[in-house]
Structure to design on (427 residues):
């Protein structure tokens, strides 16, 4: 079953992000065993080599670590590390596009800030 | 098997009645990987597969398994399975058999044949082994070829259009079975298909044939990450595409979309920086259409 992978982005990047999402949402806890290559390959119906590439990406960043003979584990501090990483890309991934679109629609800075404020208020309820 | 099996061909050519259908193909297939073979109708896919498995003699070039020629070499062929599409109209050949008789022949032919596995697969697909091949539906014919391919346990296993007749449930099941078995055994699978979109994630490597030639052979991930649709005003798109390989363009008024690729390892963003264009990544299916689709455009006299 293809559980919501997009066709047009590198699959291994998406696998890495899925694991990160699970860590952020507390589905995977620190010091817990992460899904294996084979489990990921099965769950997403993808080539195991691709799944391994996604896992290795997180190992390289220190988000997962390898316990010999047992498998991959979520590193202590992984969650705050992911938050830091995503914060630093938040500006380029979301804010720049938002501002650009607002400009092409002649939305003023005040209107834009007001919209953000409203979205934050509505999100609280 | 301690050695990793490598099936290679060098400068492989095939002509039928003076017409060249396979032209100078050189490639290597290694155990441990799943290869997807794609190409348009008549690109030479089945010809290549039948030459690799010594079911058809090459006009020139050679095919070897770990350095040993494959042609008329049973020791090499023992490690290779080519499960072809069965022709149900061939009533004096395979189609006259019952499914169980057909599988018994396969069992005799493949030395690594795994009978319990074959029985499990028959159960999973719900195949009636007492039926005659000639009486099977298209989907059931595909299932028989899949059972033969998987249960052969050959180190190099080749399937030609295995999912052609299968419904979507059976196709998903096939991909799962394939992945399970590949993870367990580390065999090589080569799969030709026209259903590219759904199989793209299964393939570790893609082989693209065009007009009998090897056009591309690359890791699926790397291949997909090199292809982009660049769109915007015509002059901006043209300026952004200098230094990129352009395969196909669409125009609509002043708007233009160019389907392009970068060289391996090259990042597209610095190349288009400062240009007012949108970048969209391409899926394997879309890049396939971009690379192979222009033959039709030429015919329509553009």
């Amino acid at each position: 079953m293809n559980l919501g992978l997009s066709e047009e982005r590198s699959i291994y990047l998406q696998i890495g992000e899925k694991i990160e999402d699970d860590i952020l949402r507390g589905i995977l806890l620190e010091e817990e065993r992460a899904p294996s290559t084979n489990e990921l390959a099965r769950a997403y119906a993808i080539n195991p080599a691709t799944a391994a590439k996604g896992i290795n990406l997180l190992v390289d960043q220190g988000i997962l670590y390898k316990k010999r003979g047992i498998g991959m584990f979520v590193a202590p501090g992984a969650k705050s590390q992911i938050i830091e990483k995503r914060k630093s890309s938040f500006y380029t991934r979301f804010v720049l596009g938002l501002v650009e679109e607002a400009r092409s629609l002649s939305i003023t800075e005040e209107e834009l800030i007001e919209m953000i404020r409203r979205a934050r208020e509505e999100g609280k309820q | 098997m301690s050695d990793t099996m490598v099936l290679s061909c060098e400068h492989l050519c095939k002509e039928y009645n003076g017409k060249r259908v396979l032209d100078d193909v050189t490639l290597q297939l290694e155990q441990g990987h799943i290869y997807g073979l794609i190409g348009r109708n008549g690109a030479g896919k089945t010809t290549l597969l039948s030459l690799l498995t010594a079911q058809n003699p090459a006009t020139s070039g050679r095919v070897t398994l770990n350095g040993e020629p494959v042609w008329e070499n049973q020791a090499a062929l023992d490690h290779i399975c080519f499960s072809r599409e069965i022709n149900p109209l061939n009533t004096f050949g395979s189609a006259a058999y019952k499914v169980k008789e057909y599988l018994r022949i396969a069992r005799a032919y493949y030395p690594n044949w795994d009978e319990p596995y074959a029985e499990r697969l028959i159960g999973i697909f719900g195949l009636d082994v007492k039926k005659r091949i000639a009486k099977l539906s298209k989907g059931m014919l595909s299932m028989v070829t899949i059972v033969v391919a998987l249960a052969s346990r050959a180190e190099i296993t080749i399937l030609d259009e295995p999912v052609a007749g299968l419904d979507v449930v059976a196709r998903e099941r096939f991909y799962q079975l394939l992945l399970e078995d590949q993870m367990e055994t580390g065999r090589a699978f080569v799969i030709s298909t026209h259903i590219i979109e759904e199989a793209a994630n299964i393939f570790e490597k893609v082989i693209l044939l065009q007009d009998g030639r090897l056009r591309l052979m690359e890791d699926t991930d790397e291949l997909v990450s090199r292809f982009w649709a660049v769109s915007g005003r015509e002059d901006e798109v043209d300026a952004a595409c200098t230094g990129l390989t352009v395969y196909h363009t669409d125009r609509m008024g002043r708007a233009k979309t160019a389907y392009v690729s970068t060289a391996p390892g090259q990042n597209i963003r610095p190349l288009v920086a400062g240009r007012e264009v949108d970048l969209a990544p391409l899926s394997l299916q879309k890049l396939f259409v971009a690379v192979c689709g222009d033959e039709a455009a030429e015919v329509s006299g553009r």
Chain B has twelve helices and 14 strands. The interface with chain A takes residues 33-34, 172, 175-176, 179-180, 182-183, 197-198, 200-204, 220-221, 224-225, 280-286 of chain B (CB under 8 Å).
